[in-house]
Hints:
Shape of chain A: globular
Structural class of chain A: alpha+beta
Bound molecules: fe (iii) ion
CATH superfamily of the largest domain in chain A: paralog of FGE (formylglycine-generating enzyme)
CATH architecture of the largest domain in chain A: Alpha-Beta Complex
Oligomer: homotetramer
Largest sheet of chain A: 4 strands, mixed
Largest interface: A-D, 37 and 37 residues
CATH class of the largest domain in chain A: Alpha Beta
Helix content of chain A: 25-40%
Number of strands of chain A: 12
Distance between the termini of chain A: 43 Å
Number of helices of chain A: 10
Amino acid sequence: MNLIQTRGPAGSTAPIEARYAAVRARTEALAAPLSAEDQCIQSMPDASPAKWHRAHTTWFFETFLLIPNLAGYRRFDERFGFLFNSYYEAAGPRHARPQRGMLTRPPAEAVTAYRAHVDAAMAELLRDLPPEARPLVELGLQHEEQHQELLLTDILHALSQNPLLPAYDPDWQEPRAATGPARFLDLPEGVAEIGHGGSGFAFDNETPRHRTWITGCRIADRLVSNADWLAFMADGGYRSPMLWMSDGWAACAAEGWEAPMHWHRREDGWMQFTPGGLRPLERAAPVRHISWYEAEAFARWAGKRLPTEMEWEVAAALPGFRDAAGIGWQWTNSAYLPYPGFRPWEGAVGEYNGKFMINQMVLRGGSLATPPGHARPSYRNFFPPGARWQFSALRLAEDAA
Amino acid sequence: MNLIQTRGPAGSTAPIEARYAAVRARTEALAAPLSAEDQCIQSMPDASPAKWHRAHTTWFFETFLLIPNLAGYRRFDERFGFLFNSYYEAAGPRHARPQRGMLTRPPAEAVTAYRAHVDAAMAELLRDLPPEARPLVELGLQHEEQHQELLLTDILHALSQNPLLPAYDPDWQEPRAATGPARFLDLPEGVAEIGHGGSGFAFDNETPRHRTWITGCRIADRLVSNADWLAFMADGGYRSPMLWMSDGWAACAAEGWEAPMHWHRREDGWMQFTPGGLRPLERAAPVRHISWYEAEAFARWAGKRLPTEMEWEVAAALPGFRDAAGIGWQWTNSAYLPYPGFRPWEGAVGEYNGKFMINQMVLRGGSLATPPGHARPSYRNFFPPGARWQFSALRLAEDAA
Amino acid sequence: MNLIQTRGPAGSTAPIEARYAAVRARTEALAAPLSAEDQCIQSMPDASPAKWHRAHTTWFFETFLLIPNLAGYRRFDERFGFLFNSYYEAAGPRHARPQRGMLTRPPAEAVTAYRAHVDAAMAELLRDLPPEARPLVELGLQHEEQHQELLLTDILHALSQNPLLPAYDPDWQEPRAATGPARFLDLPEGVAEIGHGGSGFAFDNETPRHRTWITGCRIADRLVSNADWLAFMADGGYRSPMLWMSDGWAACAAEGWEAPMHWHRREDGWMQFTPGGLRPLERAAPVRHISWYEAEAFARWAGKRLPTEMEWEVAAALPGFRDAAGIGWQWTNSAYLPYPGFRPWEGAVGEYNGKFMINQMVLRGGSLATPPGHARPSYRNFFPPGARWQFSALRLAEDAA
Amino acid sequence: MNLIQTRGPAGSTAPIEARYAAVRARTEALAAPLSAEDQCIQSMPDASPAKWHRAHTTWFFETFLLIPNLAGYRRFDERFGFLFNSYYEAAGPRHARPQRGMLTRPPAEAVTAYRAHVDAAMAELLRDLPPEARPLVELGLQHEEQHQELLLTDILHALSQNPLLPAYDPDWQEPRAATGPARFLDLPEGVAEIGHGGSGFAFDNETPRHRTWITGCRIADRLVSNADWLAFMADGGYRSPMLWMSDGWAACAAEGWEAPMHWHRREDGWMQFTPGGLRPLERAAPVRHISWYEAEAFARWAGKRLPTEMEWEVAAALPGFRDAAGIGWQWTNSAYLPYPGFRPWEGAVGEYNGKFMINQMVLRGGSLATPPGHARPSYRNFFPPGARWQFSALRLAEDAA
Ligand SMILES: [Fe+3]
Ligand SMILES: [Fe+3]
Ligand SMILES: [Fe+3]
Ligand SMILES: [Fe+3]
């Protein structure tokens, strides 16, 4: 049995009410710069409309918390279960994922009302929360934080499809990252423990904490920069099949990659489409919006390699390890697979992570779009190796001499 | 040389100002029931967002009337030429058709402002319209009327993709069509003239008026009804390859057709998704939302055939020929090809019709969505044989005994 | 009722035996240069393996002649009905068309034995042929002649997929066509009759003979040459969207057309892959392997147009009309549709032509690959507008002054 | 630097000559039951024609051994480098993989001659083989053995596309596998070494031998049987999304899986298409032709899991571990990734394995189609998780209590 772990002593409901309010408000703040039109479209099957993110996270609380636990709760709209279930087979049939952009109704303001309805009911529930339901509240909040990040990456992609390249937020501030040449930190050989083991919240896929064997290696103290990437490009990186995985080269050719996603070549140099709109590319900033294929080819070109997720997690505790979080998710050379002894959570939320453990590579760390405090060193993000629309970045490693 | 023909004596500008205002207002009235979200989505590459229809028809006046003819005209937004050009190679590059649903910006209200800006400038131009520009004004209005129909068919398709099946207009009134068994009108053999020849407006594809040979035949005085179609279905019409064209049977199998588009089987019988929402299927009403493939298979099942467009046009003048317009476009067995001696219009608008004269079948008449007064017996509508989202209907014919 | 029409007086069986033998032998002669491997592959869904052509034409005699008419006939192999039925729904289920290249078994020599088995039985049947079966024998032979042409076009396409570009027949002789600038023949306005009306064989789609109205025009006395086509190319024909139908331009872009099919640019000029292998392009020879889209764009570039099939058929009787047959099938601007009063043949062979009367354009004449004596002026060949692997050519027309 | 490791003492050429002859002869023996037609077709992009396998393995010796090492060697045909290079970017451009079935020329007998030509030259080279070339000879033989297995799996797939379901070899003998309920062998927790470390041949992807941490578990002593699989099917295994990975369920639905590949439901029970033709399914025999998705779903249904490749390799040394090889490749829950410290071979053969280390899952053991002596416990086979046409099987594992 693998119940969701709680943060703090069970039974203390006070902090969770504040936390609930804060997380829910943050979602609305993220959606605030978007018109109803902006919130409605789906620019590719992998992305979802902002309105859908707002409704789906609400459906999560309604379905897994309110209906089972709040006596007398009345659903906001019976039909929303079909519309806003993402992928839970146990929760019944659902609207096809690639069709999420067809939902002009309910309108954005109905989703606002849905959120208010559920928030009111949740307030009632939280006032007298059964201790066994508390982990699910925490999961609902963690889930909503994950969708906050997706809301941002998905709207960036959606706006990028518009020839006008409108800004999500013209005042957008980029985070500051470590700069200068990377130093390589030594990671010694031996048995190490990874995975989540403490009392705070963690996703089931981070557990159980377990031993693993680390082969000695060295890992960079910072991320690869745009300047580094320009050197790769100038050296023919996107035209040299010998640098690439076979599938990566095929993707590069099929999709016509010549630079990271969201880069635009203009007469006076490279620009980058950011949440703040189209801006001159900052050479010193870490590269982002790269696929695993590109990251891996770059590493080969540089005479290095990607770290494994085990190496990354152990190294994250080393002094000098910078920008673990807050800039970009860092591709590793680990496939997203279950840890030894992995058990999905009990019940319907058991579908949360487990059924995606194939065809994906692990990213570690956290990005500028990750809600502050959401991630941790044991956190496992995952995407297919061709995905580029996330704030994905790259930290190099190399074998010990 | 084939200039656009004008309605009424050249130089008389008074009526055109009123007509301009009426047509433009009708577009806005059609869009009025739609939220900005509704107006933004594109449910398939063949359809366009309502907002796009509103902007594109405006772009037509700006590009072909204001810029060449109104001294000092300032474009509303330089970038709209790229966004709202549909397919005019001569007017420069344009946004890819299947991506029209990505345009959350400009927002709907900016399109409203664009329309007002162009309307004001057009009012100025119309006050002192050069006679040679007048035909283009008329074309712009005819063009906008065509898009009014598309706005309706496209939004019906878009709303049909929503599992909630929202109504475009809950008070929608269906037109009344002739009912009862069809009588067949005799069309005698001989030379006849078809095509547009008078002084009123017509599209270039309706010209020149020319002689054609009519083989004697008989043509139904009314349209095939839903009851007729239910009999076809009950007799296995959708499961009998021998009734179908080879390509039609392949389309039927590939798309899983079992009834016309927008029909929904419910426990207590067939329903139809209409602009008024999901309503019980009216048995006596003419069938609609059928492809040419289905219409042709039905005719074979009934021991009849489709009329040619020449037969249709000549027969439309016979006494007793009912529902030529106002209900549904009527598939013919004529491919959309140039008339003998056809010349496209001069200039950029020469791309209006001519470059689509392949892979399409002609429909005649007019539908409930066609603006009153827009069509005429010589009018040639055209769609690929698999198209079903228009208000397409069926009138039978048969060879003379 | 529309029975297949016979050639010569009914009941006279002597000539048909010789004709049967000659047609059947010609097929085997055409296949003779091909190895069993060559005969087995299918290079695209529209083409069929040579072995399949040999077997399918044999299946036609077995199915429509021997089984119904020859008492005691024993099928060569019960399973061949499934394998070698092309598209006759009435003759039962069949192997999927795009999978014909998977039939390594039966081997080529089994097909040879199949042919011998059916030929022996046919000899027996022809000795005492019921008069009512005779039209079907003639149809079987006409059918086999059609497949002889396809065998050649299909193997040319198959060999063209091999980087070695092997010759079908290194001694292949190209036909000699009229050369020099085209003269335009006058076709007067008025009622004309077209379609097959005599006692010789014709396909059902050529009937009934009927009146049509010809608008006066002028039609070229010879075909467009490779030199003409090079001028079109040099003038940017393949890079000028204004010359093309909208669908044609899309096809040109999607498939990367820059010249007719089977043209290869080499350092010292254009070469053409022919049944004789890769040979220098003959400038004076008629252009071939062009789609309708290309033909139509060329005509627009030349300030001309394509003739209709009615114009072509009437003009073919004019003095001076050269190369009607023997060089290349000539695209017309007529869609392949039923003639007024068209009735498919009775019985299963009613599927022969009728169910393809959509999405295709008519070609007239006959090509170098058409068996001598097979075609006639009323003959209607048909292919989709994007098809290029046939020996398709182009004759221009223009409106009367 | 990671040179290919040799078997036996360097310099001793006698055994390699015999081994060369034996391997090469075995390929020809495997192709012997196939006609030239059988050898020519490609039934899907992932499979290759038998003739191509025969030529490509020959090209390997010509390209990597003869041209660099045998003075005066004359290529059999200059053009074969283009035709029979599989994926070596360093060896120049090549024929597109999905087009391998288009190569009716060179004919099968020319490939036979090519093999003889290369064999003669190799005999000459082997008489005085430079010691540094010897590892490449061994690699060439190992490579050919791999293609021997593919030749069999690919031809089984090709023949399965033929409605006649012809047998590759009617006298085909199935291997005998362990039967009866599985016992679970204990694997203790601790550091273990895996990977190839001895002096015999191994592929670069098996190296370096390295330490890994094994979490204690239990692993079945035999493979899952057809009877087991029938129980899974009877319990709705193919209709229960909760048992499947999300991508697996999508594949199951898209491809309509209801049983392993090559199973046919007949009136009197299940049959299996084998190299010996269609035969009654043996309940006691191990299941095969299953994808990773199916294997993983089965394991979940059974309350077990797949072993990792590390567990498999360590367990293979346990007493009682049966059918490691000779029956079916066994899916593991390990992604195909480089071992810590992995270095591809030097030179062009560095592309052999390394560039496929993404999007694939590891299979361990060996199958009935694997040449005897070819595989070893450290051997890493790999295929995408949806692949079913290999002789892929399943051994279960479970966590220690
Ligand atoms: Fe979610
Ligand atoms: Fe338009
Ligand atoms: Fe045929
Ligand atoms: Fe190979």
